[in-house]
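Structure ticket #2291
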Amino acid sequence: MNLPNKLTMARVCMIPIFVLFLLTDIVPYSNYVAVVIFIVACLTDALDGYIARKYNLISNFGKFMDPLADKLLVCAAFICFVQLQLIPAWIIIVIISREFIISGFRLVASDNGVVIAASWWGKFKTTAQMIMSILLIVNFDGVFFNTLEQIFIYVALALTVISLIDYLIKNKNVLTEGSK
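Resolution: structure written out below.
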């Protein structure tokens, strides 16, 4: 197993530990431990992709597992936010639904020999979701931080919907190919 794939698997292994610290008070300030784990997991995502591309270590395992690891991490965090009553469930349903739709869309595209690359809207969405997640995990008190959290929740939601529409419009031919 190459280094990028090891980093991806390390990210998967961090998820239950992250959830444990986020949902419990196993140690004082567990949420700070959770945010460090979350940030490290996010950094391994950037690092494994960089190493795989730079050293031509792209593998089928990595193509499958890397996006899955990302979705597992983000979905785990989002579901915890609902349990902790930090974010309404309907927002998480919209966000997770978008991930399923795009994953299915990419599967159909790949069956047709088409690769759907990440768009700028998708990258902005991911960045907003990561910032939102960090703010919610740390969960500082005060009007400023509560307002900032709410802003990022709705920015992430808006970018989720915009990026979905962007993917669908740019790649609508994927769904119509082969249907005669």
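Closing remark: The two ends are 43 Å apart (CA to CA).
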